[in-house]
Amino acid sequence: YRLNVTPIRTRDGENIGFITLLQDITKLKEVDQIKSDFVSTVSHEFRTPLTSIGMGVGLLLDETPGTINNDQRELLEVIQEDSDRLKNLVSDLLDLSRIESGKIQMDIESYSIKDIAENASKPFHMIAKDKRIDIQLDMREELSKVKADFNKISLVLTNLIGNALKYTATDGTGKIVISARETANKMLICVSDNGKGIPEDYQQRIFEKFIQVKDDNGETPGGTGLGLAISKEIVNAHGGEIWVKSQLGEGSTFYFTLSLGR
Ligand code: ADP
């Protein structure tokens, strides 16, 4: 059951009663389960044929010099790009449905957050250099350890850093900082950029599946719209929270928390 209590207040703010709504959500839960089973089965079944399409096109492109003309090559390249995109989507959907259903094994141990952040940011240094974006890891050696599944928190940081790179200017002014701060009982990890920013009314919704901010031409960016949904599920499964503060045109800072380890 879901219980919803709303106070009724007079204009002066005095409480004069409550509206109580008790809702049977058994059916809702069942539908949710069917939906996630369906997504997981379909994604799984998509994987094998997609792999062979990708391999086949790759072979045609690599191993037949001179036997295909330019138009055919262009077509094959489009097929390759699209099948890559579909493969990413399928793999994101599978990750998400596994985490959502609680089927994924969490391998929690104490780690240095700096080690995880270095592992996650390493693959981006080349891309950042190409895009003339300055990327900095600002974490003290003496920080306490965090309780984390190394690979999954790496994936969260990979998503956040990848986004920061995607939505930050490439004119040499772009800057990304990955940092961590310790509070009484938590580690606060931040990925901040000085990129395009996120409109206020999207700042909560981008953590939902498939929500992408449309650009000025009404187009959604490449990508699956699942990265932040996956990141939120992972952080929540660790008992942490994730949120964003952002100003349009100024940049965005994504925050998430983890428990301290030993
Ligand atoms: P994807 O990046 O695949 O579209 P995500 O779930 O990672 O999906 O992100 C959802 C949306 O949030 C993005 O499409 C983009 O509109 C917005 N977004 C995420 N990170 C940033 C950022 N650092 N700066 C500006 N917009 C962002």
Molecular structure report:
- There is one protein chain.
- The chain is α+β, with helices and mostly antiparallel strands and 262 residues long.
- The chain has six helices and nine strands.
- It has helices at 26-63, 70-100, 113-121, 125-130, 150-166, 227-237, and strands at 2-9, 15-23, 108-112, 134-138, 145-149, 175-182, 186-193, 242-247, 251-259.
- A five-stranded mixed beta sheet has the order 4-6-7-9-8.
- A hairpin with a 3-residue loop joins strand 6 (175-182) and strand 7.
- Helix 3 (113-121) crosses helix 5.
- The model has no long low-confidence stretch (mean pLDDT 91).
- Bound molecules: adenosine-5'-diphosphate (ADP).
- It comes from Anaerosolibacter carboniphilus.
- Residues 1-37 form the PAC domain.
- This is histidine kinase.
